[in-house]
Amino acid sequence: MSEQHIPVMLKECMHYLNIQPTLNYVDATFGRGGLSKAILEQLTTGKLSVIDQDLAAIEAALRLQKDYPNLIVEHTNYSELQSLLHKHNLACVGGILVDCGVSSVQLDEGERGFSYRFDAKLDMRMNQNQTLTAYDVVNTYTPAQLLHILYTYGEENNAKMIVRGLMKAREVKPIETTFELVDVIKSSLPAKILKQQGHPAKQTFQAIRIAVNQELDHLESFLKQATACLCPQGRCVTLTFHSLEDRLVKQHFKALSTPPKTNKRLPQQEVTLEYQTLHAKAIVADEHEIDINPRAKSAKLRAILKL
Predict the structure, then answer these.
(1) Which class for 79: exposed (0-12), middle (13-18), buried (19 or more C-beta within 10 A)?
(2) Portions of the chain given CATH number 1.10.150.170
(3) How far apart are CA 299 and CA 100, in angstroms?
């Protein structure tokens, strides 16, 4: 774990988790372990299960386990949450924390191929044991598949131009590196778009990464399991970093905590809700934190309580 790493909204995460020292918790995305360590420091007899699909994160978690014997480490995707809890005979937990999407560790390790800032082989796998890579998506997917990915996962308005550029480049040779992909994207766009604020490859890289790792499918599955696995008075706290993730969380929490619509002309039945959201709007980082940690600028925190 790097000393330079600063967990996003650490204070807010701990506030909404409301750690009880004797209960069991889950950190569904260990990353560099900053949030996990903050939870462990508050536990006495309670256990913390940490999950990550990244091998480097698991190695860091195993090192931390030497100091915290109540730490359970699992190398898997968080969509396997219920299986993990069953494996360790945990019927429910007092709280679950998830920091969604790509981690700053993965972005900073240029050789992983996540970032357009570093030249590397097109990879983008969060789980290094997975076979599908960004190279496969970029070089073998059909134009229709690529258009769907760029529109749906990148919300890229210039998807048609970029896909045409990809098809043209593939006719000459495979696109093998991140910088080659950036060059194709730039050469596919007119000058007036390239002059706009922000990197022209940002949304395409996001879209391909989400497709490679099936991030939204895994997040949707995880959310259903996480809220179901909470003990009474247990809490699920989420950190998201782009609108697609946040929308899934917002919709899931709203569906659980809002009474279903009924026909007012019919006799009304009393509805008992099992969940309650803990704040009206998403929590965002303050300006001071954003100055210290720019990654916090796009973060949104949401929390729900099982009654």
Answers:
(1) buried
(2) 127-213
(3) 10
CATH 3.40.50.150, the chain: domain bounds: 10-99+215-306
Q: Report the topology of domain 10-99+215-306.
A: Rossmann fold (3.40.50)
- Measure the CA–CA gap between 34 and 39, rounded to whole angstroms: 9
Phi, psi (deg, nearest 5) at residue 80: -100, 20
Count of residues making up the chain: 307
226 within 8 A of 79, measured Cβ to Cβ: no
Q: Which fold has domain 127-213?
A: DNA polymerase; domain 1 (1.10.150)
**Model pLDDT for residues 255-279, shown as the tens digit of each residue:** 999 988 877 777 777 778 999 999 9
pTM above 0.90, yes or no: yes
Beta strands in the chain (DSSP E): 25-27, 48-52, 71-75, 93-99, 230-240, 275-277, 300-306
